[in-house]
Design goal:
Elements (H helix, E strand, L loop, with lengths): L4 H13 L6 E2 L1 H12 L7 H21 L8 E2 H12 L2 H19 L6 E3 H10 L4 H11 L6 E3 H13 L16
Antiparallel strand pairs: 1-2, 3-4
Helix pairs in contact: 1-4, 2-3, 3-4, 3-5, 5-8, 6-7
Protein backbone atom coordinates (compact mmCIF):
# COMPACT_ATOMS: atom_id res chain seq x y z
CA UNK A 1 0.00 0.00 0.00
CA UNK A 2 1.37 3.40 -1.01
CA UNK A 3 1.89 5.93 1.76
CA UNK A 4 0.71 9.50 1.23
CA UNK A 5 3.76 11.74 0.63
CA UNK A 6 2.96 14.04 3.54
CA UNK A 7 2.49 11.11 5.88
CA UNK A 8 5.87 9.75 4.79
CA UNK A 9 7.52 13.13 5.38
CA UNK A 10 5.88 13.49 8.81
CA UNK A 11 7.22 10.03 9.63
CA UNK A 12 10.73 11.21 8.75
CA UNK A 13 10.30 14.19 11.08
CA UNK A 14 9.07 11.84 13.81
CA UNK A 15 12.15 9.63 13.38
CA UNK A 16 14.43 12.66 13.37
CA UNK A 17 12.89 14.05 16.56
CA UNK A 18 12.84 10.67 18.34
CA UNK A 19 16.27 11.25 19.83
CA UNK A 20 16.16 8.14 22.02
CA UNK A 21 14.96 5.89 19.19
CA UNK A 22 12.31 4.35 21.41
CA UNK A 23 9.35 5.02 19.10
CA UNK A 24 7.95 7.82 21.25
CA UNK A 25 8.35 11.58 21.29
CA UNK A 26 8.78 13.15 24.70
CA UNK A 27 9.54 16.57 26.09
CA UNK A 28 13.11 15.29 26.50
CA UNK A 29 13.32 14.56 22.76
CA UNK A 30 12.20 18.10 21.98
CA UNK A 31 14.63 19.54 24.52
CA UNK A 32 17.44 17.54 22.87
CA UNK A 33 16.40 18.86 19.45
CA UNK A 34 16.37 22.39 20.90
CA UNK A 35 19.92 21.85 22.16
CA UNK A 36 21.02 20.60 18.73
CA UNK A 37 19.49 23.62 17.02
CA UNK A 38 20.83 26.04 19.64
CA UNK A 39 24.36 24.67 19.21
CA UNK A 40 24.32 26.05 15.67
CA UNK A 41 24.09 29.60 17.01
CA UNK A 42 27.01 31.47 18.49
CA UNK A 43 27.30 31.17 22.25
CA UNK A 44 26.45 34.85 22.69
CA UNK A 45 23.49 34.75 20.25
CA UNK A 46 20.91 34.54 23.01
CA UNK A 47 18.05 35.91 20.90
CA UNK A 48 18.20 33.16 18.26
CA UNK A 49 19.04 30.43 20.77
CA UNK A 50 15.97 31.40 22.82
CA UNK A 51 13.76 31.70 19.72
CA UNK A 52 14.68 28.17 18.59
CA UNK A 53 13.96 26.71 22.02
CA UNK A 54 10.65 28.57 22.30
CA UNK A 55 9.53 27.38 18.84
CA UNK A 56 10.40 23.74 19.59
CA UNK A 57 8.70 23.84 22.99
CA UNK A 58 5.65 25.49 21.39
CA UNK A 59 5.57 22.57 18.92
CA UNK A 60 5.75 20.09 21.81
CA UNK A 61 3.01 21.92 23.73
CA UNK A 62 0.84 21.88 20.58
CA UNK A 63 1.28 18.11 20.32
CA UNK A 64 0.31 17.63 23.95
CA UNK A 65 -2.74 19.90 23.74
CA UNK A 66 -4.00 18.11 20.63
CA UNK A 67 -3.38 14.62 22.05
CA UNK A 68 -6.28 12.20 22.03
CA UNK A 69 -6.07 10.19 25.22
CA UNK A 70 -2.46 8.99 25.03
CA UNK A 71 -0.36 9.58 28.12
CA UNK A 72 0.60 13.25 28.22
CA UNK A 73 4.27 12.47 28.57
CA UNK A 74 4.75 10.79 25.20
CA UNK A 75 3.41 10.89 21.65
CA UNK A 76 3.53 7.89 19.28
CA UNK A 77 4.13 7.96 15.53
CA UNK A 78 0.51 7.70 14.38
CA UNK A 79 -0.65 10.25 16.93
CA UNK A 80 2.13 12.62 15.85
CA UNK A 81 1.16 12.29 12.21
CA UNK A 82 -2.50 12.87 13.04
CA UNK A 83 -1.70 15.97 15.08
CA UNK A 84 0.53 17.30 12.32
CA UNK A 85 -2.48 17.22 9.98
CA UNK A 86 -5.03 18.47 12.51
CA UNK A 87 -3.09 21.13 14.41
CA UNK A 88 0.51 21.86 13.41
CA UNK A 89 -0.37 22.66 9.79
CA UNK A 90 -2.81 25.35 10.93
CA UNK A 91 -1.34 28.66 9.66
CA UNK A 92 -0.76 30.30 13.05
CA UNK A 93 0.73 27.15 14.58
CA UNK A 94 2.89 26.50 11.51
CA UNK A 95 4.20 30.06 11.64
CA UNK A 96 5.10 29.86 15.34
CA UNK A 97 6.56 26.34 15.32
CA UNK A 98 8.09 25.55 11.93
CA UNK A 99 8.87 29.04 10.68
CA UNK A 100 9.86 30.11 14.21
CA UNK A 101 12.64 27.54 14.19
CA UNK A 102 13.66 28.31 10.61
CA UNK A 103 13.78 32.08 11.05
CA UNK A 104 15.99 31.88 14.14
CA UNK A 105 18.15 29.23 12.48
CA UNK A 106 18.81 31.30 9.38
CA UNK A 107 19.48 34.42 11.46
CA UNK A 108 21.96 32.48 13.60
CA UNK A 109 23.78 30.92 10.65
CA UNK A 110 23.81 34.03 8.47
CA UNK A 111 26.67 35.65 10.34
CA UNK A 112 27.54 38.00 7.47
CA UNK A 113 23.96 39.31 7.24
CA UNK A 114 23.60 38.42 3.55
CA UNK A 115 20.16 36.88 4.01
CA UNK A 116 21.40 33.63 2.47
CA UNK A 117 23.00 30.33 3.41
CA UNK A 118 26.00 29.07 1.46
CA UNK A 119 26.25 25.38 0.64
CA UNK A 120 28.89 25.03 3.34
CA UNK A 121 26.63 26.67 5.96
CA UNK A 122 23.64 24.58 4.86
CA UNK A 123 25.49 21.25 4.88
CA UNK A 124 27.12 22.08 8.24
CA UNK A 125 23.73 22.91 9.70
CA UNK A 126 22.18 19.60 8.70
CA UNK A 127 25.31 17.63 9.59
CA UNK A 128 25.10 19.04 13.13
CA UNK A 129 21.40 18.11 13.19
CA UNK A 130 22.13 14.51 12.22
CA UNK A 131 21.42 14.61 8.47
CA UNK A 132 24.25 13.24 6.32
CA UNK A 133 26.24 15.62 4.10
CA UNK A 134 25.31 13.48 1.07
CA UNK A 135 21.62 14.06 1.80
CA UNK A 136 21.96 17.76 2.61
CA UNK A 137 24.24 18.38 -0.39
CA UNK A 138 21.63 16.99 -2.76
CA UNK A 139 18.93 18.88 -0.91
CA UNK A 140 20.91 22.12 -1.26
CA UNK A 141 21.05 21.75 -5.05
CA UNK A 142 17.28 21.40 -5.24
CA UNK A 143 16.45 24.15 -2.74
CA UNK A 144 18.70 26.67 -4.50
CA UNK A 145 15.91 27.40 -6.96
CA UNK A 146 17.63 30.23 -8.80
CA UNK A 147 21.01 28.47 -9.05
CA UNK A 148 22.83 31.29 -7.23
CA UNK A 149 24.91 28.92 -5.11
CA UNK A 150 23.11 30.12 -1.99
CA UNK A 151 19.74 29.51 -0.39
CA UNK A 152 17.91 32.69 0.43
CA UNK A 153 15.66 33.20 3.41
CA UNK A 154 12.66 33.08 1.04
CA UNK A 155 13.87 29.90 -0.69
CA UNK A 156 14.35 28.16 2.67
CA UNK A 157 10.91 29.19 3.98
CA UNK A 158 9.28 28.18 0.69
CA UNK A 159 11.01 24.79 0.88
CA UNK A 160 9.81 24.23 4.44
CA UNK A 161 6.29 25.12 3.36
CA UNK A 162 6.52 22.59 0.51
CA UNK A 163 7.94 19.91 2.78
CA UNK A 164 5.12 20.12 5.27
CA UNK A 165 2.21 21.25 3.09
CA UNK A 166 2.73 19.72 -0.34
CA UNK A 167 2.00 16.18 -1.47
CA UNK A 168 4.10 16.84 -4.60
CA UNK A 169 7.12 14.53 -4.30
CA UNK A 170 8.84 16.43 -7.12
CA UNK A 171 8.72 19.76 -5.28
CA UNK A 172 12.21 20.86 -4.22
CA UNK A 173 11.08 21.19 -0.60
CA UNK A 174 10.21 17.48 -0.55
CA UNK A 175 13.98 16.84 -0.49
CA UNK A 176 14.54 18.74 2.78
CA UNK A 177 15.34 15.60 4.83
CA UNK A 178 16.33 13.32 1.98
CA UNK A 179 15.16 11.91 -1.31
CA UNK A 180 11.43 11.28 -1.62
CA UNK A 181 10.76 7.55 -1.71
Amino acid sequence: MAVDPQTRKFGLVFDWFDQTGDGWLTRGDFQKMAELFQALAAEDDEANRTAMEKALMFWWDTLLEAGDGEPADKIGRQQFIGIMYSSVLEPETFEKAIFGIADALIAALDTDGSGTLSKQEYVRMYDELGVSPETSGESFKRLDRNGSGEISYEEFRHSLFEYYMSADEEAPGSWLLGAPK
